[in-house]
Structures are given as C-alpha cells and as structure tokens.
Amino acid sequence: MKSSRRSKILIVLLAVVGVVVLIVSLMSSWQTPSKRSGAAANPGATIVPPVSAQQLEAWRRPNTTDPRQFAIAYARTIWSYDTTRHSYVDWQNAVSVYADPTSAAAPEVAKSLLPQWSEWDQLQLHKARATASDMTAQITPELEAMVNRSEAPPGWHAYVMRGRQTVVLDTGTRILDRQAAVAVVCTPNCRFWSATPQVSP
User: Which of 43, 92, 127, 158, CA to CA, is 20 to 30 A from 25?
Assistant: First the structure.
C-alpha cells in the first residue's frame, strides 16, 4: 500500500519536473531565435542593425514637367556631396533616381559624371563636402539645331549646365566652376536622358 502510494507520488513529481523543464526550454528558444539563426548563417559574425542612408536636401529629385528645372536639379545632385554624412553608394543611388526606370543602361549613364571610387576615397580622406550654386541652364545653337533636325526623340530638351561648386576640405576651401551638357525627356514628366562633361555635343 505504502509502495504504491510512493510510486504515485514519484510519478506525479516526475511529471511536474518534466513540464517545468519543457517550459524553460521553450522560453529560452523563443527569446534567442535571432542569435541562433545569425550564428548559423555566419559563425562569429556580429549582428548590426541596418543604418538608413543620409540623403542630402540637394539630392531631392523633382517630379516636374519643366525640363530646365529637372536638368538643374540633376546637375546640383552630381555637384553636391558630404563625405561625413553619406557613402559613395548613397550618392550613386541618388543620381540613379533621375534615370528612366525602364532602361537598364540609364542609371549607369546618369552616374557617369560622378567621380571615380579612387577620387571618392581621397575626398573622404579629407572629410570633403561640396555645394552647388549659381546654376544656369542654357540652350546653345547646336542643341537647338538637333531638335530642329528631328535628331532627338519627342519631349527631348538639352542644356549646357553651369554652376559654382564650393568644396570644403580639412585643408581649406576651394571654389570651382563646373559645366556639363545635360539632356532630359519630358513626356510630360521629366526623366534623365544623357549627360557629358563636353558642352559642345
């Protein structure tokens, strides 16, 4: 009689201990799934939360039907940067937004007037930043002739862009004159078409 009672008590105790162990193991697995999955994917790696890119106000792409305004905004974007606030990829992405999203080559063309990686490294080394001012968009006789000869697609506009770039380095400030030929297509909303540092197409 006593042995059967002891057996029943022992069974109940084992059942309680089993339930407690099960609850503890479930709680620990719920609290650490990200740690275990991160370690399995890349052993020894530290999980760092993503940091959002710092967009400059000068990079804002206008949603406009005005080709001159759009061309000026593009030129301001390629001549404005701050190496202490954003990466080179952030700058490339900001310029790519101007391109026609249906064209695979357009973003590469839009980024073609940015400095090379090695130049960016030097700018970053000197904590450089630059702003663009005194922006103008001029239609030259050569560009106008292209439109008159129907050598351009519908809605095509091209300008010689000029501006003043103020570059601030840890060693001082420089003021540079910048220029480029920029073409956009507006049908009716504008998008980037092409650009070149040569102002005589």
Answer: 43
Nearest to 163 by CA among 92, 58, 82, 61: 58
Residues in Cβ contact with 86 at an 8 Å cutoff, skipping those fewer than 6 apart: 53, 54, 55, 56
Q: Which residues pair with 195 in a beta bridge?
A: 182
Q: What angle do CA 172, 176, 177 make, to 5 degrees?
A: 170
Fold of 57-196: Nuclear Transport Factor 2; Chain: A, (3.10.450)
Phi, psi for 195 (deg, rounded to 5):
-155, 150
Please answer whether residues 91 and 81 qualify as being in contact, where contact means their C-beta atoms are separated by less than 8 angstroms: yes
Would you list the domain boundaries of the chain?
2-41, 57-196
**Is there a contact between 111 and 91 (Cβ–Cβ < 8 Å)?**
no
For the entire predicted model, the pTM comes to: 0.71
The CA distance from 79 to 117, in Å, is 16
CB 138 within 8 A of CB 160: yes
Candidates 162, 148, 165, 166; CA nearest to 199 is: 162
**Nearest to residue 182, comparing CAs of 77, 100, 79, 75?**
75
pLDDT digits (tens, 9 = 90+) for 39-56: 333 333 323 333 345 689
